[in-house]
């Protein structure tokens, strides 16, 4: 009888328990419920589909074009505001004021822990600038001194995939038959030893809205090669699988970069000099007045994105302190393309017997040493580092005094954030380390001339003294003549390569003693031993142990004496 | 010496006892997993077990409290000095010698003086400590009280979690001693049988 009761009552209990969390799910689901399901067919799917124009039909683009500037003049003949719009964006200026810190950021102003600095290397670096400069390798034309027809429309809009801006030409495509410089073949876009001037009309006629390949042409190759810089951006995202990126999946949603980095007047949203680490009230929805943009996950997914499971409220509670990326990008560099993790300029400068910079690759083809740059290590499927982050990064400007931390490492972009400022969440980062030259007397990171065809360029001479002197001079900074090497660190917030839900970081990888969030302060993380009260644990375990010993001892005496009594009776 | 049988535990009490026992074991096992004491079991599985069992035990306690007050059975837990020395002496000494238990349970006085104290301690200290700290943890982590400034972020939750941990250790001690003392009836299985059938055997 009691057993039947137990079963019946137990069933009721189970139902009541099931009812409780699902009722919660209803209260926490935001207005976005159901939005995701209706996306197919609403959002621009892939390049070209949302323009009613075929540029092949325009006689203005029939060509032939002698110079790329002539193409731009044809473009702005109709798109009258386009060049002026582009010239206001950071894609052109490489410089802007960070509203959070008031400091100047952009490539022109800050250091990085890859090739370190743009200044004095512009004719090389501007092969990723949305403009045309002077094809003389030694003559850099400042961006602000360039006419409207020097805006490069093709790099973002042409769809042949054959358009390549050539190193040392200030951002121009090959103007004549040219030999490929050793170590740079990736940027010339050829396997041959030379390049010829391309048919510019072919590019002009192919234009449409930018594709992933357009953006990736520069952003996948940042830091000097495919996947080198970001860790979450490389050529595997040109045609990614569902497992690599659920949004860009070519067989699924097939987002372009601009589906999230929405553009108006040629200005793109997003960017990592400063970002909104805890965006709220920015729902991106038709008819919803907003100042936000869909570049943040929450714009579309809301604050309570998990639905329909009994543990959805449990997952949703995590959004208060975790960025979506923290669980949903379990590793970066997941597309088989490795990313550079460390770089050691201190070992650079070795040349092979034939006089070219020494190159050492490992069996997989990863470049472990290059005379121009030094030693490298690479990572694939890298587990990110996790930090509290409020979106503000304090960037080191050229000329800033070095202030290395207790570990002797200077940060070129120290990230701000704390568990208590109300603006931070725990974000995943790629941390890129270098060991780069600095002025030991002035205590400033060295601006140095790494790339050029002159003898001061480190790539040509392997001479730090000359390269630093030239770089500091170009930057207008004093150089004492004494240099050393400073360990540096750079933070890259990870936000691309969003994995399918089933591949999200499992609970147990953080809720454990030595997991992904080991050492992240400001949380009580169940399962993380460092959050326990040591004396309470000791006392508790001792009490349990003593009670076990007590009852076993008591039982032992009872049995012993009972046996003796029984023996006595016999 | 005669063996006397008394009907001590009514149907609800037996159901309450065994379902609570099962839930407490589930809560302890899953709680230790959540605490990081052992691995293997998926964290989420342990969490779901813990939450469902917590809701279950909460519901059970609501029923049990209601039952105690409507039936007047709460009086079974009122502390008494009656034979307290004799009872203590029995557990510490007399039991080893095979002496009879000084307390003879009747439906009106099921518990001896030490049992009353032990269960009062369980019901007024251990259970409320676990219950209140558990509810605070739910309120804070699930943000059911958005204005709960004490909970944000970490410190308040840590206090509630530490209280919950302390409660769990106390509960473990209780369970160990309770299970052992269940074997100290007139025969080793007498108390357990009583909690199954309701009929307790005792010596007179």
Fold and architecture overview:
The complex is a heterodimer of chains A (570) and B (204). By secondary structure, chain A is of the alpha+beta class. Chain A has a domain at 339-523. In chain A, 25% of the residues lie in helices and 13% in strands. Chain A has helices spanning 2-28, 68-78, 82-86, 90-93, 122-125, 154-157, 185-188, 200-205, 212-219, 257-260, 297-301, 312-317, 324-328, 458-461, 464-475, 534-569, and strands at residues 96-97, 104-105, 178-179, 194-195, 263-264, 267-268, 339-344, 359-361, 367-370, 374-379, 385-389, 393-395, 410-415, 425-439, 444-445, 483-493. In chain A, the strands form five sheets. In chain A, strands 11, 12, 13, 14, 15 and 16 form a six-stranded mixed beta sheet that branches. In chain A, strands 7-10-9-8 form a four-stranded antiparallel beta sheet, with no helix packed on it. A two-stranded antiparallel sheet of chain A has the order 1-2. Residues 1-48 and 287-291 of chain A have low confidence and may be disordered. Chain B has one domain (3-203): Transmembrane di-heme cytochromes, Chain C (Fumarate Reductase Cytochrome B subunit, Up-down Bundle). Helices cover 62% and strands 5% of the residues of chain B. Chain B has a two-stranded antiparallel ribbon with strand order 1-2. With 204 residues, chain B is mostly helical. Chain B has six helices and two strands; from the N terminus they run E-H-H-H-H-H-H-E. Chains A and B meet through helix 1, helix 12 and helix 16 of A and helix 1, helix 2 and helix 5 of B. Chain B: One of its GO terms (molecular function) is iron ion binding. Chain B: Residues 9-198 form the Cytochrome b561 bacterial/Ni-hydrogenase domain. Chain B: InterPro entries: Cyt_b561_bac/Ni-Hgenase, Di-haem_cyt_TM, Hydrogenase_cytochrome, Ni-dep_Hydgase_cyt-B.
